[in-house]
UniProtKB/TrEMBL annotation:
Entry-linked Gene3D superfamilies: Ribonuclease Inhibitor (3.80.10.10)
One GO CC annotation: nucleus
Gene Ontology biological-process annotations: nucleocytoplasmic transport
Natural source organism: Tetrahymena thermophila (strain SB210)
Pfam families from the UniProt entry: LRR_6
Secreted keyword on record: no
Keyword hit for Kinase: yes
GO molecular function: GTPase activator activity; kinase activity; small GTPase binding
Coiled coil spans: none
Annotated keywords: GTPase activation, Kinase, Leucine-rich repeat, Repeat, Transferase
Name of this protein: Kinase domain protein
Length: 221
């Protein structure tokens, strides 16, 4: 069914694929990745929902192996939540999406993916072309990688909108302070939406942002 549909989709510019809680697996991810590149070359906006599909590192590589050949792709919303991709899978996501120079809007769902410090380190390093970046609920992040994230995100010269939800992590006041300092140094950033593990942590981070005089922000959510 998907094959027949995608085969007729050469001229479409927007495509949404929702296959959450199915049995896609690594082989199914490879099929989707292959068909997208061969049949949807003109796609500009792509949404892929494949949460809870028993996808591993190999499946992530299969799905994204040639995504950089979608030269017109500017907006990508991809949910990989509840798949055991681990740190290496997060690294693969960062590498492959980092090769997509036209993508300016990126949303990634990574809840319950067994991603730790090394994974977020590798992921964030590859996404510097984004203007709008949303990272939803990455897991097991500590103060060390919160600090790295804050240092690396400053290098995102085009970033105007950032949403990052880190409710299920091990970030303390040290990490909060690092994030606030890093966000305050992103000169292009106009909108920031952040949620941490506890409401009071989020409030504290916003207080720190105000302390660091984030006058360039038009909106803090």
């Amino acid at each position: 069914m998907i094959s027949k549909f995608l085969n007729k989709s050469q001229n479409i510019q927007y495509l949404e694929i929702q296959l959450c809680e199915n049995y896609v697996g690594d082989q199914g991810a490879m099929f989707i990745g292959t068909r997208l590149v061969e049949d949807c070359v003109n796609i500009r906006i792509l949404e892929i929902g494949i949460s809870e599909n028993n996808i591993s590192l190999q499946g992530v590589e299969n799905l994204l192996i040639n995504i950089n050949k979608l030269f017109n792709l500017t907006q990508l919303d991809i949910s990989l939540s509840a798949n055991n991709i681990g740190d290496e899978g997060a690294q693969m996501v960062g590498i492959k999406l980092g090769q997509c120079s036209a993508i300016s809007f990126l949303q990634i769902g990574l809840e319950d993916c067994n991603i730790g410090d090394q994974g977020i380190f590798s992921l964030i390093k590859g996404l510097r072309n984004c203007e709008t970046l949303t990272i939803l609920q990455t897991n097991n992040i500590t103060d060390i990688r919160a600090s790295y994230f804050a240092t690396e995100i400053v290098k995102y010269a085009k970033l105007t909108k950032l949403k990052i939800y880190l409710q299920f992590n091990q970030i303390t006041e040290v990490g909060e302070s690092s994030l606030a300092i890093g966000f305050s140094q992103i000169q292009s950033l106009l909108l920031l939406d952040i949620e941490l593990k506890k409401p009071q942590q989020t409030v504290k981070t916003f207080e720190l942002l105000k302390f660091h005089s984030c006058n360039n922000f038009k909106k803090i959510l």
